[in-house]
Amino acid sequence: MRVSWDQITAWRLDRHSLRRPAPSAQWLEVVTRIGGLHAQLLSAAEQALAIRVSGLPRDHVATSLWRSKTLLKTWAMRGTLHLVPAREFPGLISAFSNLRHYLRPRWLKYFEVTESELLGLIEAMAAELSGLLANDAPEVVF
Length: 142
Known about the structure:
By secondary structure, the chain is mainly α. The chain contains seven helices and three strands.
């Protein structure tokens, strides 16, 4: 099979809903398909979704993140903030489980923490969460 660059470009534009915006009912499918919305700035995520999906209210991203919690903000690709569908989070975490971008020197410097301090914090959090889960504690809300 031979595929031209024009065909590849057209396919990618279609997959990203950039040639024809998706209907508003498909907004979460679009976010899933593109692997999340880059969200170093919330307005960037809002714009990325607005050009891909028609008819969403202006505050849809914020509402989905903070009220309905269908989106989750997390460190993801390239060690940057992304909004991902909450239902996809377990698979995403599994896929990224071997990445240690938070141990890169620039990340540690930005958060003003040493590697040993951060690893100690992660260990303490894991122990605390394990204790909560072992005791059949109610859902933890942050």
